[in-house]
Amino acid sequence: MIESINTESYAEVDIECIMNEYGDSLLRMCTLYVKDRYLAEDIVQETFIKVYQKYHTFNNHSQEKTWIMSIAINTCKNYMRGSWLSKVKTGVFLESTSLTNIEEDVLQEEKERELLEKVMQLKVKYREVILLYYYQEVGVKDIAEILNIKEGSVRVRLQRARQQLGGLLQEVNNHEV
């Protein structure tokens, strides 16, 4: 059943402009978060619907991007709570950087894939700060606002996540020798 939306009750918002501005970065972040491109597309779509419906509640205490990212993260978390999501396989690859030869390209892609696999093995509270900080380039202050935690907690989670990643990557290197 499709609900009709009464557009008169919503603040005037240029949703198309917002989608163009944040769509790609939200899709990438959600794909990394839930490990499934098609599910991420659904989450981004749902995020934009929520943004449209709730834009009148945006109070400018934070940046628009921070507010939208927090909606997307919460939507990802809601999907992650579903038991069916445990069946999703890890199959996300980062975009390859443009290197001068194919061999370097392949090696770089393999390193990025391994790193991402290790990031996805972290607990959610560590994974989300890594994804926001490194993959979305969101600052500590904004991450704290998105996740509704203190800045110090973000720094601690980043430090612990880096330590855990270092250990996981060390295990990989030891097995290769």
Could you please describe the fold and organization of this structure?
The chain has 7 helices and no strands. It has 177 residues and is mainly α. It folds into 2 domains: 12-92, RNA polymerase sigma factor, region 2, helix turn helix motif (Rna Polymerase Sigma Factor, Chain: A); 96-177, Winged helix-like DNA-binding domain superfamily/Winged helix DNA-binding domain (Arc Repressor Mutant, subunit A, Orthogonal Bundle). Helix 4 (102-121) crosses helix 7 and helix 6 (140-147) packs across helix 7.
Which key features would you list for this structure?
Rna Polymerase Sigma Factor, Chain: A; single chain; mainly alpha; 0% strand; Arc Repressor Mutant, subunit A; 177 residues
Helix fraction, binned, reads 55-70%
User: What is the H/E string?
Assistant: HHHHHHH
* CATH homologous superfamily annotation of the largest domain: Winged helix-like DNA-binding domain superfamily/Winged helix DNA-binding domain
- Quick one: overall form? globular
**Sheet/helix structural class:** mainly alpha
The CATH topology annotation of the largest domain reads as: Arc Repressor Mutant, subunit A
β-strand number = 0
The CATH architecture term of the largest domain is Orthogonal Bundle
Provide the residue-averaged pLDDT. 77
**Number of contiguous helices:** 7
